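Quick question, first post here. What does this chain look like in 3D?
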Amino acid sequence: MGFDLSSIEDYVANHLRLFILSVAGLVVFVGIIAVSVFFIAVRGAEQTMVPDVTGKELTEALLELQVKELYPRLQLRYTETSRDRGYILEQEPRPGTIVKAGRRIRLVVSQGVVVNRVENFVNRNIDEVRLDLMALQTTAGGIPLLTIREPIMYEYSSERPGTILVQKPIPGTDISGPLSLEFVVSRGRDNQTVTVPQLTGLSISAALELISTSGINFRFTTRERSGSESGETVVTQDHAASTSIPLNTVVNLIAVTPQNIADNEIFGLFRYTIPANPYPLTVRLEALLPSGERQRLITVNYMGGEFTVPYKLPRETVLILSMLNRELYRETVN
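> Answer (accepted):
Ran it through. Tokens below.
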């Protein structure tokens, strides 16, 4: 019996074709499954609508987000009133936005005002209180929570000058928004006097040091040295040493020029008019030398008016005048 080779070849070809088609079909099927899984994964969780929780209390807002399978991301903010404490100020995304379940929603929650009640400022120094209020948290709109009403009322008392005697509103008053404080402040005892020190004959630097501790109100002028006068000294004062004068009385002093001045130095008179104060405030004049060194010329409690200080300093020195540690003025020596 012989074999029909053509029949065998046809049989093999048919089965090979069937095998190839089966493999191709399987590949297509697997591809379809893979693409379906991919799009299902991309589509993700069920979509939901973001609820409107602005203006609602935090607990209520969290419950609404939980129902929608959404999660909060909280941010806290101070506001102008304590009445909205714990309520939602803003949200992101906006209400009505379609998002995937599981999305985080940013909620801005009010903490109310930074302070809840007016503290007791009585017996404190008004200048210290000013600094404290400047550092106090402002409202969301940038408005200070507590300010001092101007002008302040001053009255004579046995308390140290600058001491707060009376305040309004009284301590413990609830703060529901920006509030203005009214103070009555001590200007010290009436008819206060100071004793004039012996300044004539002192060097300018020694005179400035003594003025710093004596509490007198002073004014300098300068003139050229003459005769046997020592250079850079105080040669005249218009109130005799050891006499008592009212606190605000000006003691006029005359200082003469130095005997020798280097080419890179300059002798001059610093002048600046300080607004009148109800009581002496701490004033400081410093010299910032070209080398970068800082040198104090005088620190004194000053009532206000024309502030004058003689100096001999290197050229390009910067003179810096401060009051209560706040810079008022600066100029360059040339």
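The chain has a mean pLDDT of 88.
The longest strand covers residues 265-274.
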